[in-house]
Amino acid sequence: MSASSRLLPGVPLVESPLFSSALDEMNLTESERDIAVQLNARGYAVFDFPDDELDARIERIKAALSAHFQIDFADPRAVREIKGGLRIQDAWKQNEDVRAIACNSRVIALLSKLYGRRAFPFQTLNFPVGTQQHMHSDSVHFSSIPERFMCGVWLAMEDVSPDAGPLVYYPGSHKWPILTNDALNLRRLPEPSQSAQKPYEPVWRAMTEEAGLAPERFCARKGQALIWAANLLHGGDRRNDLALTRWSQVTHYYFHGCAYYTPAYSNPAIGRLWLREIEDAATGARVENVYIDAPIRSQLRHAEPTPSPGARPLWRRLLAMGGRLARKARAAQPPPRRN
Fold it and tell me: What is the gyration radius of the CA atoms in the chain, in angstroms?
């Protein structure tokens, strides 16, 4: 066991302040060691996706998702008319090829070595064109306790042109403090209809300007993949040529033995955690939220689950219930006497 695992078990090995001493004890191959060093220093690492059937999978995914969008992506005129970014979330639940990419055993084994806990995929996003998404840290959308036990793996499903809106990222930004609502003086009540990251965007812009940090672009070739750390700022570049596609898949991974929550709708200091109900895409099993060594619900009084689509947050339901009770009480009162 490395010093980092022994002294700081709640910190990912690859992001540990004891990383240098842990590196020799992580049982990595030479290529895996290079990935670990890049991920630690820059917050991302590039590798060739290890799947002998990848080309065939990609073509089947493109065909299936093109039918879903009802767009002929081979026709530049049809692609040019797309307004905004297109995505399909969690296609792994219906598409076996998407699931196979997300559940690639060699990728999961690599991530497990790098982080010191067993990785599992919990979300996929598939994109036919560039997102043009504002730079952001995934730690606002989904995080863990202990923090930083989350990462993303982005896979290029075609050669990416600089004009197609490639993935952009800010090297080294993963080492910055993770911003939470209290840093912005926000007391956020759960409102899933609101943008999770919008209040943070001016802060991220100011931080990159202050640091003089310029974005890098990942003009990947087909089959290349990029791992990014939980707090790395990244986004989608401008689509200069709207006729170009940018087929890609993102898989987000958590690690076992954590609590999983949405920081944007949480105030942990007062016990308000918007806990996520996480499913392991590899097994289909529910993954329990754990704090240290016990289920978090047995320790936390105010844990709130992720709502079903369209569900109102708890505080709105309580207000509505109070209003109904007040109306019933008024209706039950006898009318006032008139003299």
Answer: 23
